[in-house]
Amino acid sequence: MAAAYSAHAGAIGPFEGIPHLLQLLDNTEQRSLRHALLLFLQALIAPTAAGDLTPAPVPSSTATTLPNVSGSVAAAAAGAQHQGHTTRGNGSSSQPRPGQQKLSATQAAAVRAAKANGYLLMDHGGLQLLVDFVAGAHECTERRSAAAAGGAGGAAGAGHLISSISHAEAPKEWHFYPHGYSPDAQQPTPAATSSSTEQPAAAAAAGSVGVHASSTGGNRPHGPEFYQVGDEKVPGPDESGRAGPLSKEALRQLHSRGVITHDTWMWAPGMQGPARLAGVRELCWMCCSGLGLLGPFEAALVALQILQQLASLQPAVDEFGAVLQPLPRAHIGLADPACLPHIAQVILTGEPALVSAAASLLTCILAHNRAALSRLYLTGVFLFGLAYCGSNLEELAGLFKTAHLVQGFRGAAEVTAGLPLFQRSYLGALLPESLLHMLESYGPGVFAAALAGDHNTPEIVWTAGMRQQRLIPAMLQVWRHVGQTHDVSLRQACCFAMQIPPG
Q1: Rama region for 350: left / alpha / beta (φ>0; ψ in -120 to 50; rest)
Q2: In sequence order, what DSSP letters do the residues of 440-476 get, joined into one string?
């Protein structure tokens, strides 16, 4: 069905069953069916009959002489210059946009059907649903090691940071209210910033409705002292009726034993308050039965591709290059704080395809959204990108080029206009000014090649020792500020959105 629609979307027309499809995609208890529906949704939004609507990157090279650097950087600079000269030689003043492409009648009909499907998807909560698929990538247990991912030796410094937490014990993030207990709606719920390892005194703030005093007259409710799940000993309910903390794996096993059901109240740091398991999407999906058609990385990549197509079907500029006001719904929705941090955090998976897709999507939805773009640094995406150990850095470099000079960490751009480049750039405290000039003068491709290598020339000084001196201390400071080893915590609670300090 997906293959037929993908090839003949124009002839078939819009698919009116998207609301039901989304509801089934969210609520089915069969993992294989969920993945099949996700692939069908991809065919509805990105049919092959519509062609590729993703706009090509705009050449950004403005320099007239190449830097005195070695090999790959010089070659990349030469390629960037050649592309720039070709564009100018053709007399083109702007990059062709989706609205300017000449489509055949079949393609135009397929695009109209895909657009209609996209609007239906957004009308029924599809954006958040797809972002939750993206966040689910953190559940993958097969992580690329720093050595395997670092195809370029220049990423070794960042690799030390990642490898230092790759074997950390998985934190126990989740709490549950056993049968017969529920959180008190009248009492304050646990603060989203509190640690999952807090003592029962802090947990008592969740309230005590449904909690019965023990026969000894104490406040501890009836229930086991602990639940034994394999080698993990899960504490029983405390004075508030809340048991835990426990890991996701222990939670899954307790669900299979019937101790936890879809009606059980759950809570983890990052949530505004307790919610039934049936209302916590990542737990509901984890407790599904059967084998899936896709792994966590594959499902996240399909979701990112659908989101990219949605953004491309609704370009932020018209055929004359003027920015639309208001911006298209897909761009506004994905830039919302409920979605944007999770797209940025997928870079922490270290999976090359996901890193490239997330960076491209962020560039697409934020390039013309100045308000959201100026706050991008709060998601940590610059630090996540510099900590990435892979060699496919061009998409990340394109995102850096779009965003690094417009971040609001020093105030309005007008205030910082007269400052040197390294003071205006958010990357100025992490990278040498010579690399920033490379990014501005020669574009993302040249910058990516320079960033991945070791250079000690009059034009660029960037070595493994500088990475350790500049990048790792800054990143460790952020990790300590949040107080968790993020990559491991995200595997246990994908809903967690990190808050990066402004300074």
Answers
A1: left
A2: HHH-HHHHHHHHHS-EESSS-EE-HHHHHHHHHHHHH
Under 8 Å between Cβ of 345 and 292: no
By three-state DSSP, how is residue 268 classified?
A: coil
- Structural tokens at position 390: 């892979």
Query: Residue 116: its pLDDT value, please?
Result: 96
Nearest one of 143, 130, 145 to 361, comparing CA atoms: 130
Residue with tokens 């993020």: 486
Q: What is the pTM of this model?
A: 0.79
Lookup result for tokens 């409710």? 221
Residues, the chain, total? 503
Burial of 398 (0-12, 13-18, 19+ CB in 10 A): buried
Exposure string of 136-168, with b = 16+ CB inside 10 Å and e = fewer, is bbbbbeebbebeebbebebbbbbbbbbeeebee
**Rounded Cα–Cα distance for residues 338 and 497 (Å):** 9
**Which ranges constitute the DSSP H helices of 204-291?**
248-256, 281-286
Under-50 pLDDT residues of the chain: 58-66, 81-82, 84-99, 145-167, 185-220, 484-488
Question: In whole angstroms, how far apart are CA 103 and each of 5, 98, 153, 310?
Answer: 19, 9, 44, 18
3-state secondary structure labels for all residues of 69-86: CCHHHHHHHHHHHHHHHH
Please report the pLDDT score of residue 128 as a whole number: 95
Q: Between the CA of residue 454 and those of 166, 174, 449, 468, what are the distances in Å?
A: 25, 44, 10, 13
Q: Which pLDDT belongs to residue 158?
A: 41
Q: What is the DSSP string of 112-181?
A: HHHHHHHHHHHHTTHHHHHHHHHHGGGG-S-PPPHHHH--SGGGHHHHHHHHTTTTPPPP--EEEE-TT-
Q: Which two tokens stand for residue 68?
A: 């005195």
Residue 129: per-residue pLDDT: 95
Distance of CA 92 to the CA centre of its chain: 35
Q: Which amino acid is at 104?
A: S
Cβ atoms of 112 and 12 within 8 Å: the answer is no
Residue 81 contacts residue 61 (beta carbons within 8 Å): yes
Q: Which of 331, 397, 339 is nearest to 370 (CA)?
A: 331
Secondary structure class of 230 (helix, strand, coil): coil
Q: Which of 108, 88, 95, 122 is nearest to 47 (CA)?
A: 108
Going from the C-alpha of 479 to that of each of 147, 378, 431, 476, 484, the distances in angstroms are: 22, 13, 19, 5, 6
* C-beta separation of 358 from 343 below 8 A: yes
Residue 113's contacts (CB-CB under 8 Å, 6 or more residues apart) are 9, 10, 12, 13, 14, 15, 47, 50
Report the SS3 class of residue 386.
helix
